[in-house]
Amino acid sequence: MKIMKKSCQRTEEDRRNLTKTVEEMIDYVREKKDIALKEYNLKFDGCTRETLRVNKEEIQEAYSQLTAQEIEDLKAAAANIRAFAKAQKETVRPLEKFSPVQGIFLGHRIIPVKSCCCYVPGGNYPLYSTALMLIIPAKTAGVERVTACSPVMKGTNRINPKTLVAMDIAGADEIYAVGGAQSIAAFSYGTQEIKPVDMIVGPGNRFVTEAKRQCYGQVGIDFVAGPSEVLIIADGSGTPEIVAADLLAQSEHDPNAKGILITTEEEFGKEVIEAVEKELLELETREIARKSWEVYGEVIFVNSLEEAVQLANEYAPEHLELNLRNPEEVSEMLYNYGSLFMGENTAEVFGDYASGTNHTLPTLRAARYTGGVWVGTFLKTCTYQHMTKDAMQNLAPLVSRMARGEGLMGHAQAAEVRMKR
Length: 421
Fold this sequence. Notes:
Blueprint: E1 2-5, H1 15-32, H2 34-45, H3 56-64, H4 68-90, E2 95-98, E3 104-112, E4 115-119, H5 128-141, E5 145-150, H6 161-170, E6 174-177, H7 180-189, E7 199-201, H8 206-215, E8 220-221, E9 229-234, H9 240-251, E10 258-263, H10 266-282, H11 286-296, E11 298-301, H12 305-315, E12 319-323, H13 328-331, E13 339-342, H14 348-353, E14 379-387, H15 389-405, H16 409-419
Helix pairs in contact: 1-2, 1-7, 1-8, 3-6, 4-5, 4-6, 5-6, 7-8, 9-10, 9-11, 15-16
């Protein structure tokens, strides 16, 4: 293996200070509730809203600020995301009357969570596509109360109009103009204006991420996310400019984002590096993209596709692209990734917006143990059982012996008292 452009490791944030800062923010929101939210809105965004919930008039005004094409684009993307979410839900089915032995009947129900909050970042860009990716699966799953929140545009009292329209098209039941760690605290513990929810999903900055980590348990979360990542496996059969564009599409997200190319053709890797440098001269977001590429970008030369697959599984990237002649030949060998994009025609950016799969995906190697947000994120599989008297009499002695073996005499008694009936 030869690394042609070695990245620096991510620098560790001062975890202690971050943890303390967020802990103090959560405590302040729990104590002061809406007063704290309005103070933070003013401090961080220059927002002077008195009412945090967005009303129908604001939503209609947001529609008026978008072109007909922009609205149609959002609806078209939403249709694809909704269709895939419905297809996914059909794969999650109840189980009824399964009998391991005669007289014992087991099953499970598929139950949606009652309420959730979909956090849509503001930050450097209005990530209105995230509203579609979070709200639509929640609604498709059958969540009764789907709330959404996003920080306002700096120096205003309004959420970005595209984000607001996306939230409405996706079907949000309640929308709130609040963001940051304080919003996570509000939806976890509740305020006068915001009723708490059962689950919070969505990406955010390090303060949002830390708040989700600290509030987990009080509220469910999807996962703790970090900066965006893409890893591309290439055999040299593709187009260097296309690979370069896909690497920079991730790099422009954040100075800490990571773009990685693993290739079996050293010359192709050099051509990709040249193509990256060329695109950076013209890219409007080159300031952020260049920082990300220069610090965290990697181009790695390997001797075989098998070695490339092994590395990819070790990286467990958020997005994994196969820029190969025959991507199907290696796809089954890959098992650690958030979402897989097969072939040069299948750009990761298509999944970001409109092909139908979800773009809220695990980062920082979390793909080793979880997938991304999907309709099942909002569903609980809850078991139940029923048994006849004869089945109970047959099972109770086994349970009694096992309970006594563990020293739990009350458990044994709960079985034995039924044997005497």
